[in-house]
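Figure 2 data, in text form.
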Amino acid sequence: MRRHRLALALLALLAGSAVAQDFPVDPPRRATSVGQTPPPLLALPAGEPPAAELITPFQLLDHFVLPGTRQRLQWRPPDGLARGEIPSPIIVAHGALPGPVLCLVAGIHGDELNGIEVVRRIAEEVDPTRLEGTLVAAPIVNVFGFSRGSRYLPDRRDLNRHFPGSRSGSIASRMAHGFFNDIVRRCDAVVDFHTGSFQRANLPQVRADLSNPDVLEFTRGFGGALVLHSQGSRGMLRLAAVAAGIPAVTFEVGGPQFLEEEHIAAAAETIRALMHAMGLLPQEERNGKATPPQAIYQGSRWVRTNAGGFFFAEVKLGERVRPGQRLGWVVDPLTNTRTEILSPFDGRVIGKALDQQVLPGYAAFHIGRHTSEQQAALEAAEGAGTAESDEEEDPADRPAADADPERE
């Protein structure tokens, strides 16, 4: 720790002279390969062991973030797509010690507020002087949707179906390409926050492709969070990241449009546990905090309504159910006819629709089947047990624009 304090003190002394000249806050854009960093900012004092690592700044968006500091940057989509819109904030907390780069992403769907608050909260509370590695936080990616309270982009496309994107595709594809290359490729691991969609809520849960060994190992850092195996759908950020060699998961937290402190607090605590597990935060700070056993769910299934009318749920998120148990009912206000909704198997309610008016076939309850990590990994490798729909979106509910043949 003496070396670290000395290094930080020297940084402070140099900040107004040599550091400012060699590493300007806003240097001119130049062609650099992804991941390239400038020469070492400060070597450790002479006589230190040769194996000691150098303290270097973190390069992102043509900025250099000094060790032990936090800097708020701005990201704009390429090609002037966000002209007139507020830029997306990117908060970088660069540790005083070397370590992994963790990226927290939220707001890809503009109406999903819980994840935005989790990322904002973690980014502001972390102390970069105690951080071993780097935290990159992108709380609001889809500023178009966020400013309008909408899930989608202006062209009604779902941004989370267009990663890694392309330079010359649709608005969604160009935006995905810019964010993926500017931000995601600079990270060692990614957590992408979402909520339920279309008036549905999700129990906080990590969704991941457990057939990938690196992803499986990454999920072990989420403490006692529920983990659901899901291969996902083409164009999702987590799939594009994994394809690029970056372990990534989706973290579902509650429902859209509203802030739910119960879910936000639980998700934030899970991310703190992850940062300790990754070595970003000192392990001794978690003394006295027992980690509950992790719940692994290999498969899941949506239970749908068979009648139209007013839907009422009887069970709560997280509740365990048995075959034949009544989950809720639908009442037709015109005929006063009541139709009950029953559970088809043993499981746990990991997602459900809010009480509302529904039509026949509406996805009402998402039931997960519990299993062991070993069995989940085995079945995942065999391609079994994938969830019916991922990131809460049922294919039948997608807008027509997402079914466009142009979709990458």
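Caption note: DSSP finds nine helices and 18 strands in the chain.
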